[in-house]
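Tokens for chain A. Residues wanted.
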């Protein structure tokens, strides 16, 4: 990172945040925040985007705004160091999206693989809401309004960042250098780019109900780990087991650290030894799950405890968000002023234009 880095990411308030968000983006955000090597950092709750596929359920979105805010604070995001805001409270984002819509074709939007998958998941095939279909454009507005250079996110966001970059290039080409090109910052650990669900499905996702939530109780986490998808061919302990596509091992890849073995499973030095034993046969799923549960509890317990503290003063959390929205709005307003000038729609600030027109009509 460099001193001119502007970091931005958001989450949809469609549910509480889960360990997929954590390894895909949230953990990195906290590290970046604490390293402090940036100009500005924004984290936002994408409520307007959540409404694009929940238009008949605004209550769900409203209830989850505070849940996501609590998850942020619980993970260690700190409003003293960064700006946390709510998307819908920044009307400049709508304005920017509206201008961006002219820079993108329908066929370009149709090619977005993440949106394609999501349309299928939601059964939208024949009735896609225009707002949902165009959310990559609105996401480009979210990113560029804050001049973000760096977006820590999971792999599903890659097509969104590509779309945003294209929009920036097109805008700057037509209207002159105004907007900043963003870069995605994927997790260093490949398994964290897209953490699968507890059911073994490709992605842990609020919409699929296959999540371990950061705010789940210790009991819930244990229950979910115990019933996790493993290797369906590993029927008896002595059978050789498979690691590939085995969610328990994927989670161990994402969460285990060398020190966990000495602390919780001293029979093994490292994960490779556990994997080798499992593949050879003779290691039961339950033992591996017990180990995973201990690791997850260690990681999640401090998050749960911090959450419980913040839950004691909910009005203060809303106040923090309100302050964040004001800060964010001021930044977006500056960018929009540049955008309007570049697009030549800043009529009343354009003294030259007014003088020129006056002259033209005077000489008629
Ligand atoms: P929804 O189903 O409502 O879209 P979601 O679980 O996909 O919810 P988002 O709010 O869309 O969550 O994603 C927020 C951030 O978390 C993004 O940066 C995304 O890449 C990341 N993320 C979400 N799910 C995962 C996952 N399973 N693995 C890694 N990163 C993830
Ligand atoms: Mg999503």
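Reply:
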């Amino acid at each position: 990172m460099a001193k001119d880095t502007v970091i931005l990411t958001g989450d949809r308030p469609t549910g509480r945040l889960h360990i997929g968000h954590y390894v895909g983006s949230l953990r990195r955000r906290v590290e970046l925040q604490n390293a402090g090597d940036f100009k500005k950092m924004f984290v936002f709750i994408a409520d307007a985007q959540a409404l694009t596929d929940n238009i008949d359920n605004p209550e769900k979105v409203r209830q989850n705004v505070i849940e996501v805010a609590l998850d942020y604070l619980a993970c260690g995001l700190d409003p003293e160091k960064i700006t946390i805001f709510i998307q819908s409270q920044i009307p400049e984002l709508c304005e920017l999206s509206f201008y961006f819509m002219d820079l993108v074709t329908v066929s370009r939007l149709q090619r977005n693989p993440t949106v394609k998958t999501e349309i299928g998941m939601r059964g939208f095939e024949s009735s896609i809401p225009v707002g949902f279909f165009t959310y990559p454009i609105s996401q480009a507005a979210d990113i560029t309004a804050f001049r973000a250079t760096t977006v820590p996110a999971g792999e599903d966001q890659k097509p969104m960042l590509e779309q945003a970059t294209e929009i920036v290039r097109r805008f700057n080409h037509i209207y002159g250098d105004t907007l900043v090109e963003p870069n995605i910052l994927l997790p260093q650990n490949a398994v964290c780019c897209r953490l699968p669900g507890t059911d073994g499905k490709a992605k842990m996702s609020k919409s699929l109900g296959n999540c371990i939530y950061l705010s789940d109780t210790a009991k819930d986490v244990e229950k979910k780990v115990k019933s996790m998808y493993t290797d369906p061919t590993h029927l008896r302990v002595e059978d050789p087991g498979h690691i590939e596509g085995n969610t328990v091992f994927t989670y161990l890849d994402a969460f285990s650290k060398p020190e966990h073995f000495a602390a919780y499973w001293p029979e093994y030095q490292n994960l490779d030894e556990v994997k080798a034993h499992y593949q050879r046969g003779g290691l039961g799923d339950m033992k591996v799950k017990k180990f995973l549960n201990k690791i997850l509890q260690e990681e999640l317990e401090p998050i749960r405890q911090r959450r419980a503290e913040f839950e004691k003063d909910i009005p203060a959390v809303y106040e923090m968000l309100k302050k964040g929205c004001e800060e964010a709005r001021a930044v977006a307003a500056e960018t929009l002023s540049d955008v309007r000038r570049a697009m030549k729609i800043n009529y009343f600030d354009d003294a030259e234009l007014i003088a020129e027109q006056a002259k033209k009509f005077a000489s008629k």
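The chain has a mean pLDDT of 95. The chain has two domains: 6-194+314-355, 218-310.
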